Amino acid sequence: MKIPESILKQVEKPGRYTGGEWGEVIKDPESVDVRFAFCFPDTYEIGMSNLGIRILYNILNEREDVWCERGYAPWADMEEKLREHNLPLCSIESGTPLSEFDFVGFSLQYELCYTNMLNMLDLGGIELESAKRANDAPIVVCGGPCTYNSEPFADFADICLIGEGEDELPELMDIYKKHKAMGFDRAAFLREVSHHQSMYVPSLYDVEYNEDGTIKSFTPKFPNVPAKVQKRIVKDMDKAPFPKNLVMPFIQTVQDRIVLEVYRGCIRGCRFCQAGMVYRPVREKTPEVLNEQAKILADATGYSEISLSSLSISDYSCIEKLTDELLSWTDDRKISLNLPSLRVDSFTKELMDKISTIRTGGITFAPEAGTQRLRDVINKNVEKADLLRACRVAFEGGKTQVKLYFMQGLPTETDEDLEGINELAESVIDEFYATPGRPKKSPQVTLSTACFIPKPFTPFQWEAQCDLEELQRKQKYLMGKVMNRKIKYNYHDAKVSRIEAIFARGDRKLCRVLLEAAKRGIRLDGWEEFFDYDKWMEVFADLGIDPAFYANREFGEEEILPWDNIDIGVTKAFLLRERHKAYEEKTTPNCRLQCSGCGANKLGGERSCCPKA
Amino acid sequence: MLPESVNAVKTDIKVRVKFSKTGSLKFISHLDLNRTMQSAFLRSKLPVWYSEGFNPHPRVAFTPPLSVGVSSLTEFMDFKMVEEVEPETIVERLNASFPAGLRASLCYAPKAHFRDIKWSLYEIKFELSGKAPENIEEKTKAALSADEIFIEKYSKKGEPKVVNIAQGIRFCSSSLDGNVFTVNVKLSCDEMAFVNPKYIAEVLEKAMPECFAGAENEVCRMEVYLADGETLFS
Ligand code: SF4
User: Fold this and answer.
1) What is the pLDDT at residue B64?
2) Which of residues 233 through 262 in chain A touch B, CB cutoff 8 A?
3) How many angstroms separate the CA atoms of A269 and A154, rounded?
4) Does residue A161 belong to any structural domain of this protein?
5) Measured between alpha carbons, how far is B201 from A480 in angstroms, rounded to an integer?
6) CATH value at residue A354
7) Distance from CA of B93 to the nearest CA of A (A)
8) How far is it, in rounded angstroms, from Cα A217 to Cα A230?
9) Is residue A154 domain-shared with residue A286, that is, in the same domain?
10) Cα A227 from Cα A578, distance rounded (Å)
11) CB of A551 closer than 8 Å to CB of A541
12) ipTM value of the model?
């Protein structure tokens, strides 16, 4: 049932709910075996910005036996209408209530969307807790980077897919079809699922805790359920499934462009960065395949911009060849090329000439820390001289605006390091005036700082986040140091970062917190107008759960961590080694210079720089 | 706006396309329609003229925007091409690149200006909320043909103001089929006397609350006319 027009006329941006976009897939429900609702637990604009999810949508729909539809979190005005009129949350394509699907899948990209998932289940008429779901209720399957620690939402997910979904999802469909044909038994189905690589079924494990709240044991309930779940990777990125069509939103989204994933993983190994670890090993696509795929996407979407995306795009071994090949046709088709995530040591005149012929605007670098000492601690192998050289190239090329990203509250950080952030900005300004042939306008440096969040599967996973007051003091401190009017300073809300830290390292005890938060109407936390820190703190207080246990406690190196049941390839021993090196202020070379034996090579992978396992 | 370089346009071929906008498209704003067209152009690979500069884009002019929630069988857009292409081919390639709610029907060289469009014919379908009076058609005609039809409009500042919109309404016909009541009415889309079709529902509700109060309605623009309200725009 589609949403009545009288309601659509009363809400903001009705285009979020109507569907009918170019590339939308409509099938006859009678003609398919599996109906899958691919849900994004945030608004339509955010969900449709994620090209990876749109690709998965089409991969599933290219199968004749599956109809994959989409679902998004309604904005508050629509939620109110749905609740007022007692209408269930439905899929975009056919207007089918979520409760009528075989699968309801959620892509969890950030911790703040957990409450949206619960709210969507509730609006969709699905029991929040997997234990309460009836045999024929939808299977709730979670994927996305957050599943590397699925414990905070373990009670709500029937299945968590660990790793890269391109092959996982189709495989899951096949298992389901088999069970459906036999007369579906939920328990038996979930048992079989757990035997497949990377498919984690949280309900099949028992967790016991010590008196101090740390984990005592984590045991499979049955002998043939694996104690550790190994992540899945796409071995050969050139052969990863790639769709011929894509759905195109009518309304403006956050990313209205083609985002071409050039390679997966990162050779760098910054010690705070989760993506840099969980996507190991690096696997590149060849320029030929990328060029073909860019053409397919350009034809299918009609976007006028291609953004080359990867964790650190300039580390791509064939970047020159790729940009040349792309530029040979993009200009003619009025398509511009964009390279985000440039490293300062790779920022050359040649590269900038290529992109600046098409794109204006400022440039962005991420030194992450203000002093060389702290940059060594976090293994961000960037030198001040490199940054200044890159800025000079940019200034010579006519740029005046530089944006610098930093993290505050990193392990071992002192006020001197914070001061270093301002000093770096001052040096960039000085460099501007020392550049012959600089533009006539005056320069501007924008400092943007985020708060450090200890993330699972990083060398800093054991670290405590500074408490809230200290995070805020650091922000004030730096604010006090920035005197130059040509320097602007923005920072993230430390309260948001604290909630993220709590759930990033959460265990199953937090399921209760999420459940209670959902009951109290907490959702849309990613939106300033709805985020309410005090409300969260009330929930923790009322349930007698200490948020500092998760965010502000240094985890013991011997401790069983909530995510120890997941095997991402990179070993805990490597992460520990890296942690200790951080304290010694020693850096680790990037994977192309030298393998540091992280363990990810055991997963295999084509066009990686790992030694053969 | 960036100056156009002299040789940017090899040939300056102006094209007008007539299209309909229905289904989900009626909930899409003018800005989003524009964006949708731009991507459809790129998908169609038609030799559309693009502006020069850092952010090249085709320059497209549309007929006056519809209110959100209103569909239309008669929309026009003008744009320029850099090569001659058969009108049928343009229609075909656009339709192959359009989402389901957009359909191009005609293509030709424009004559009249969009600013000459002064009247729109709307079909408004009501799903009556109560039993229709015997003489619903007469009463509708009377209500919409009166010399004085007052409604409350809101100024930009949000202050209510009572206006007579009778001059901007030309009643055409009505018909009742079960509980579906259809009204065909021409409304002014002149900038000075613009009448939003939603006012028709308000006027009818005042006249016959027993069947119009809370009645759902669907509005569709059928045709657009020049100042006399009789000559079709093309
Ligand atoms: S195995 Fe070696 S080369 Fe491969 S990701 Fe790990 S450290 Fe890098």
Assistant:
1) 82
2) 248, 250-252, 256
3) 28
4) yes
5) 60
6) 3.80.30.20
7) 13
8) 19
9) no
10) 26
11) no
12) 0.85
